[in-house]
Amino acid sequence: MIRDITLGQFYPGSSWVHRLDPRVKIMVTIFYIVALFVVKDFLGFAIAAAALAAVIIISKVPLRFILRGLKPVFIIIGFTFVINIFMLDGEVIVSLGPLDITREGLRTAAFMVIRLILLIIGSSLLTLTTKPMNLTDGIESLLSPFRKIGLPAHELAMMMTIALRFIPTLLEETDKIMKAQMARGADFESGNIMRRARALIPILVPLFISAFRIAQDLAMAMEARCYGSGVKRTRMNGMKLQRRDLAAVLIFIGFLALIAAERILL
Fold first, then answer.
1. DSSP string, 58-94
2. Where is it found, in Gene Ontology cellular component terms (predicted)?
């Protein structure tokens, strides 16, 4: 299950989506997430899902690889679905003792699950199609206007990108530690949920030690390359909007207009 987490990973490719300006992809992702919370019916979610499916096809990232990232959050999705079914009052469909399943609860639960799935897939596509350094440059460029009020744009962008970049690394370290302890007789699969949770506690100490070691190695590597905060840094490849970026913006504006029209008219 640990290997199934795709957040923070980059899938190499040369598709149209991969070659888009990172600033465009970041802003499109943000507004797409906002649009998901604006949608209030199934037709709107169908439009959002169709748009996301088109992006996946164009990006040429395997759908199986993307859906694999949903496995670790199945418990959260299932919990969200169950909570919404039983917590909303309305027309009762099925009664299970003191608990009632209502039509309104089913509708809200379906909305929440669909929204959560689309949100996770849409966010994952950003990191899957954008190199970590390009993501850093894009975030820094978008935050640069706030430097006038003292916001450290470069430092914030670097921290956010490092955090995303090392998610797969820490997951790999966790997998190695679990396999090493299983070879020594540890059991992480039998018993109830509480017993499995307690079995994971011995993993935390070596994982923290490994995380601090990785952080120290990274800091030493950055110092060896004379990296310093507050210094105006140059880039080998500057960011410049191309025609494909403008086309992507226009297409996304059309998507937002379609969502707004659907929300107003229906």
1. HHT--HHHHHHTTGGGHHHHHHHHHHHHHH--SSEEE
2. plasma membrane
